[in-house]
Amino acid sequence: MTDFIIIGAGLAGIVMAERIANVLGREVLIIEKRDHIGGNCYDFYDDKGILIHKYGPHIFHTDFDEVWTYLSQFTEWNDYQHRVLGYIDGYNVPIPFNLGSLHQLLPEDLAGKLESKLIKTFGYDVRIPILELRKLEDPELKYLADFIYDKVFLNYTKKQWGVEPEELDPSVTARVPVYISKDDRYFQNKYQGLPRNGYTQMFENMLSSENIQIKLSTNSKEVIKRDGDKFLIFDEEFKGKLIYTCKIDELFNYGFGELPYRSLDFEFENLNQEYYQEIGTVNYPNDYNFTRITEFKHLTGQKAESTTIAHEYPRKYVKETNIPYYPIPKKENRDIYYKYKMKGDELDNLILIGRLAEYQYYDMDEIVAEALKTFEEKIR
Ligand code: UDP
User: Fold this and answer.
1) Is residue 188 a part of any domain in this protein?
2) Which value, to the nearest 10 degrees, does the dihedral of the CA atoms of residues 102, 103, 108, 110 take?
């Protein structure tokens, strides 16, 4: 048996495997429940030949030089800059809500006045979380904050999470701040793009070492057994490092209760036309049961006669029935997570990493950064 076993072939597991195999020159086994690698970043060509993201749109963006340099060893990038429009009051306006959105939705004299006031109060090229903007006392800015809150955040968040924005950690809505600028990009990071030949191809390049073995379609629950502070893997005592990237509550048999998640359903549709919408993603905060429609060709830059779109429907998460896409950032949930984490910390040979194992609403670049750091600190 190898000295390193990784549970989960998502981004965290793949980075760890790549480092162990290529930097240490050691053997590593990855065990993956699904029949493919890549976790929720997995992409593939659908039966009409369109490259799509099976688990929803993934746009890579980062300010971390080391993360960009690291991944660029395994892929080139397509220079895509993500833009999102929100369908509000019959208009498609830039999201994050910016000065352009303001002028599209409000009468010109009022919009001009509010723009000057915003710039005077905060400066230009500044991002303000909506929950911060709502604390202002100035009546005109308060009016604007309430307007944006009602039109952009309130109903979208109720659909996406099943609760109101205030019931979640403020970091959730702060991901999409109000932007005092005319820059209409969704992300303003130093680096942005999609792997030129897709995420799955990039992952295959990362996993190409002969030191890496991957066992797909294998449920970790059937492979890992706990015996006190020991792990049995395939019924043998495992003395190496177990790198676990899946649900931490499941690893400890839900002993402290279930960690809640939010799930999604994607409805894919191929249309016999070149493009469906003008841009990669259109959000529908207030209308319909879905939150957004993504058209993959805008993201990937693929040229083809037909196009594939995905409607995104938020769902309640039910253990072992659907996919735990999002941890729900709230203090009471973090409290449960810490109980599991303390238990994990007692086990010397266990490393917990990734969105599910750390119960963190991580972006892709944060996972890569975390995995590179964990490799240096706990493995190398
Ligand atoms: N959000 C919103 N309206 C929007 C876009 C985002 O209310 O038009 C809120 C919503 O609560 C969402 C959060 O901001 O869950 C984070 O949005 P992001 O686009 O980062 O979510 P992700 O792409 O991770 O699903």
Assistant:
1) no
2) 10
